Amino acid sequence: MSVIAWIGLGNMGGPMSANMVAAGHEVRGFDVNPDAVATAVAAGVTAAAGIREAVAGADVVFTMLPKGEHARAVYFGDDGVLATADTGTLLVDSSTIDIETAQTLHDAAAAAGFRFVDAPVSGGMSGATAGTLTFMIGGDADAVSDATTFIEPMAANIIPTGGATTGQAAKICNNLMLFINLAATAEGAVLAERLGLDKQVFWDIASVSSGDSWALRTWYPIKDVVATAASNRDFAPTFTATLASKDIGLAIAAARATETPLEIGEHVAELFQRLIDEGEGGKDCSMIVKLVDGSLHA
Ligand code: NAD
């Protein structure tokens, strides 16, 4: 049994930390949102009063936070991870963040004597709950190897990506493809209904045909077709439009830095921005289907 500190107990960190409890570890969790803490405690996580209490004596610290700014706050704050953890503690950031912040975390952790890896995940809330996430891990080989041992209860796939920040690079490119696939799925799904196809019949065809994608199989934006889809629950978030906008923005920033044209990605980014402008940023990103069927605020 190991002692795990977990910072960020939201849609992903909640079920991920629960799987660490189920694997027999002692998990000490902290989140600024008391509701997230209460849900984690119900799954067996021990609530910590702050980062200092969570990381004391921990073998490993996992962070699962929304954006780079939150990761900086948690790592660099006066009572943050680098100021309060023991340097023997392995640091694993599984948030999806910009490459510049990830590099800054690597550099600061190394300068303070810590081992640190960037280890973002793919698989959504359903994968987090089932313990079948894909982890992509960047950093020094020894630290990546140690992190792999801890990560196993949460993952179906653990893939070393190379040196510092390469995990984030892989994640950013993956999510660019995911959100383009989601937009394509929303358009195909609405058009199929308008052409008179039964929604289940069309899904049965597309899911075994060339229109298939993870978005289609997990986040189908039409109600009552796929059990894991937010469309069944009035778009209560599994992955918010705000986070989707953040992720596709990370891809666009990386593309501009490398002079890579992302004509489709830039367009899909506008769809998420429209949801945010309409006050729906906290809803699930698959709600972009409402921009196709015209039902947003209808
Ligand atoms: P979320 O907003 O549900 O959870 C993030 C949690 O971090 C919140 O509970 C928030 O209160 C907490 N937090 C923020 N600042 C904090 C601080 N200073 N100290 C402690 N806690 C703090 O987000 P999520 O959906 O769990 O996503 C987390 C990360 O994982 C994001 O980077 C996201 O892009 C990525 N991700 C999400 C999914 C998904 O399907 N939801 C899938 C893969 C990756």
Q: Could you please describe the fold and organization of this structure?
A:
- A six-stranded parallel beta sheet has the order 3-2-1-4-5-6, with helices on both faces. Strands 7-8-9 form a three-stranded mixed beta sheet.
- The mean pLDDT is 97.
- Helix content is 49%, strand content 13%.
- By secondary structure, the protein is an alpha/beta fold.
- Helix 1 packs parallel to helix 2.
- It has 14 helices and nine strands.
- It has two domains: 3-163, Rossmann fold, CATH 3.40.50; 169-293, N-(1-d-carboxylethyl)-l-norvaline Dehydrogenase, domain 2, CATH 1.10.1040.10.
- It is globular, with a radius of gyration of 19 Å.
- Helix 6 links the parallel strand 5 (90-93) and strand 6 (116-118).
- The structure holds nicotinamide-adenine-dinucleotide.
